[in-house]
Design goal:
Blueprint (H helix, E strand, L loop, with lengths): L1 H15 L3 H25 L4 H22 L6 H22 L10 H18 L3
Helix pairs in contact: 2-3, 2-4, 2-5, 3-4, 3-5
């Protein structure tokens, strides 16, 4: 009876706890979403090229945090919390920059170059590069 209870507990926990792969998928999905928000802001003129450059730098820092967390094959609760908080801050920064009433011309060469960089980053996220 005791062995059977242990098996049931183990099965229940394995079904309810997120795996490292699920955590990684969630983080990657969130990265891609935030990259698309930056790209949308650039294309609409809500985010200037300078703001996009700064936001991309913050995203790159989060990417480095994720790579370090995934390096050992296990994303700990502490690592996941730190990454989630950094992503929350980036999401607020994107919203703030999108709504700060600065209007950029998305057809300027600097905006187009930044859009190309963001598009490249989105492509890399999608294809695991």
């Amino acid at each position: 009876m005791n062995a059977r209870n242990n098996i049931l507990i183990a099965l229940t926990l394995s079904c309810t706890l997120p795996t490292a792969a699920q955590a990684a998928d969630y983080m990657d999905h969130r990265d891609a979403h935030q990259q698309r928000r930056i790209q949308q802001g650039l294309r609409s003129g809500e985010i200037t090229a300078h703001e996009a450059h700064r936001l991309k730098g913050k995203q790159a820092q989060i990417d480095r945090m994720q790579a370090a967390a995934k390096a050992d094959g296990h994303v700990s609760r502490h690592e996941r919390t730190r990454i989630d908080r950094a992503q929350d801050r980036l999401a607020r920064d994107i919203a703030r920059e999108s709504n700060d009433h600065q209007i950029a011309n998305p057809h300027m060469p600097v905006s187009r170059r930044m859009d190309a960089h963001v598009t490249r980053d989105i492509h890399r996220e999608r294809h695991g590069g």
